[in-house]
Amino acid sequence: MMTFWEWYDRSFLSAKQYDVPVYELDWLVLRLTCLDKLDLRLRSPDISQKITPEILTKLDQLWQKRLSDRIPVQYLTGSVTWRNLELQVSSAVLIPRPETELIIDIVEENCQDPIYQNGIWVDLGTGSGAIAIALAQQFPQAEIHAVDCSQAALEIAKTNASKNYQQIHFHHGSWFEPLAKLNLQNHLAGIVSNPPYIPSIEVLNLQPEVTNHEPHLALDGGNDGLDAIRELVNNAPQYLISGGFWIVELMAGQAEIVRSLLQANGRYTNIQIHQDYAAIERFVSAQTN
Fold first, then answer.
1. CA dist list (Å): 131 to 69, 138, 147, 244
2. What are the two backbone dihedrals, phi and then psi, of residue 230, each rounded to the nearest 5 degrees?
3. HSE value, Cβ hemisphere, 13 Å, CA-based, for 81
């Protein structure tokens, strides 16, 4: 029977061969076992007592899937840490990315006023619920709504909200549709969204982890990638209060176009472009007149 360290060293080498980031191996081990980072760093010899043959077999099966099927490690363990949240994920939802965490910081910086802190917010295309849940944490006095057109995604988002003890109103439907039924016109303090923004043709050429396993519904933004963003630009003003805050995530190269769309619309002011950790223009925010 192979020892844990023999398995670990072999898997470490296979990560390099298959061009999979080595930290994902540690991530898988830490998620599935009672080991901690120190155990791995010190290569503790008594680890073998903590790792039963059953666990080692399971680790190996999942790691092989990661390598050969290119399944994201977050889907294999069904979980991800995002900001300070533990979130459940499956192939029904996009895996929340570290750069998206900044959307919450930008909101916090720009929305200190009580009209935002105590207002009604909506996360459009909520997916796993990550943004909505983090907003609810940030603004405990606010009323948070979240919309998604995927029922499967909403089930996961609801689970995540309750696991993180946040009260969020979830709605099934396309973009502003559920908000119209709730008569929320001119009532929203803020709208946040990480919409699908990748041009259709590019969706098929992303890494296999993304193209083959993440939901295309959450990725595909139409011919130029801006279908959903146009919808958000055009319809948000009738839902936002005067001075309401609007922010979306987008991909490299889209920020200036989105700025132009907001300007051309005529109902926005204070349009700003924000960079992510890698200095890529990743978000555009604005306020309604």
1. 29, 10, 11, 18
2. -60, -45
3. 5
> How confident is the prediction for the chain on average, in pLDDT?
95
Tokens of 38: 């120190």
Cβ partners under 8 Å of residue 106, min gap 6: 247, 274, 283, 285
Tell me the β-bridge partners of 191.
122, 246
What count of other Cβ atoms lies within 10 Å of the Cβ of residue 118?
13
Task: Output the pLDDT for position 212.
Answer: 84
Provide the token pair at 90: 């499956």
pLDDT (tens digit per residue) in 8-52:
999 999 999 999 999 999 999 999 998 989 989 988 887 877 899
Residue 251 DSSP code: -
Tokens 């298959």 locate to: 18
pLDDT at 66 over 90: yes
CB distance 141 to 116 below 8 Å: no
Collect all residues with Cβ–Cβ distance below 8 Å to 125 and sequence separation of at least 6.
147, 148, 149, 175, 193, 194, 195, 196, 218, 228
CB 196 within 8 A of CB 165: no
| Identity of residue 113 | D
| Structure tokens belonging to residue 71 | 């399944």
Phi, psi at residue 148, to the nearest 5°? -150, 150
Residue 269 pLDDT more than 90? Answer: yes
Percent of the chain scored above 70 by pLDDT?
A: 100
Q: Indicate the pTM of the whole model.
A: 0.91
